[in-house]
Amino acid sequence: MTSSSSVQQAREALGKRLREIRKDSGLTARELAARAGWHESKCSRIENGRTGPSDHDLRVWALLCGAEDRTADLIATARNIDGAYVEWRRMERSGLRRAQESVIPLWERTRKFRAYSSWLVPGPLQTRAYIESLLRSIRDRRALPDDLAAAVQVRVDKQRILYEGPHRFAVLLEESALRHRIGGAATMAGQLGHLLSVATLPNVSLGVIPLSADRTALWPVEDFWIFDDAQVNVELISAFLTITQPHEISMYARTFLGLADLAVYGAPARALITAAIESLG
Asked: What is the CATH T-level fold of the domain 92-278, as seen in this structure?
């Protein structure tokens, strides 16, 4: 499945709904396009999920098909699809600070966080030096406006949810995430030491999946966050994916449980972190 397949599936599902509305009205696709003043292929592109309809398209569609009572729901569905797959360049066009700030309301209202990472220590558990190294790399690689100091401070300030309110965190890391050097040996040693510290918090469960784990049934997957049972976020190379379909959230929740069964906790997890520190020399 491609990274944006769930978005495409949602567009196709909306297209099927629109096709049913058109057929119920007795109109052919060609007749609807003619009455709307569209190119005759536009209805087909929309119904097959190849073209996303605008708000105006949906209003016209519902009006001509005698289904004006469905207009608001159709528009809300389309907007949710459009917001699910957001390219980084769109989110970060004014710099990194705004992208960091955009998720604060979600983090503040979430009570149960589940996070899986195969390549980085997740944001709430990061040190300032680790954050700065990560965001500097993103800034330089994507040629973004330089608001690094402000973006770092937003992420550091956001970590207050670790210590305030009824927030619980279940974090799973592949052992490889402990070995990927971010910011040099000193920064990485500080980060791993901090990880040992935050793992002792009563509201944090930290599991590490050893490199020696048998991955026959479940191999490493894309990094993801589950916020309560309401939303999943996945960070892709090109975009930020938001998943709100209940059946897809359930798939990620089941995957998290499977990964959790592969992880070690407590003293064995601390031993893997300590070994990663020692490997820094």
From this structure: Endonuclease; Chain A (3.30.870)
